[in-house]
Amino acid sequence: xxxxxxxxxxxxxxxxxxxxxxxxxxxxxxxxxxxxxxxxxxxxxxxxxxxxxxxxxxxxxxxxxxxxxxxxxxxxxxxxxxxxxxxxxxxxxxxxxxxxxxxxxxxxxxxxxxxxxxxxxxxxxxxxxxxxxxxxxxxxxxxxxxxxxxxxxxxxxxxxxxxxxxxxxxxxxxxxxxxxxxxxxxxxxxxxxxxxxxxxxxxxxxxxxxxxxxxxxxxxxxxxxxxxxxxxxxxxxxxxxxxxxxxxxxxxxxxxxxxxxxxxxxxxxxxxxxxxxxxxxxxxxxxxxxxxxxxxxxxxxxxxxxxxxxxxxxxxxxxxxxxxxxxxxxxx
Length: 332
Description:
Helix content: 25-40%
Strand content: 15-25%
Strand order of the largest sheet: 2-1-3
Number of strands: 14
Largest sheet: 3 strands, mixed
Structural class: alpha+beta
Number of helices: 10
Radius of gyration: 26 Å
């Protein structure tokens, strides 16, 4: 073989063979195979900091992004819910935060135009580290806080995706009463990852068979205050009834006197814990009382926090928890 041919072959080996061998040895490629095969060409990188509107102080505060997520998890979920449940909550909270930041670039929220997120439940529950320590028993900082920090650190940077796109509505709530809801049955929009699923592991959840009693006058007054456009007329035990229920079992529509209301409207007006309720009556005539018996706490769409606790206790990891409550999603 002529010298110049030998040199040419050597150059080809160096340019092609060496990178290939190094790639095989290291097990790496230019694209993450786990994300590339699912169409996530560019995984979203979370920012170093985030700006939050601190409602009680009436000002914005810039803070470390992951520290914010950790404080949200500590504000949203008890430390004793189990590490996998805490991890699931951290991914949901981180995804929610990133979605709010993206939306903020297009439209600023009227409630807090100077920041993409706020400290009120309008966004996610948030307390500073000092507030968290103050509202827990002695020793929480050395036990519960460290558990939450560990769980959040284990998922650092991870977000929830559906069909290669960031999940923009990673909603969560306290407890479902056994079944979550389709998003369109509670809110205005339908999302393929927010569909009704069973949530069987909610033993010990708060707001179970919770009874609230009202006079007919109280019901009439509460609805008139919240929805003055719909007059109920005279209320009796005979003209108050549930007409339909959602896929998740919550009240869809309800007849109350001369008008019809959505279950979510009744829940809001009467400050019920959930729209998963039944009605019964005590007494008769003008002195009759109406009893609402509800199960679950919150809107019922997305991740059930008590359900996550139960799944974690039953052996599910955080990815399994998330893909159960957010149908068809993956964590990257």
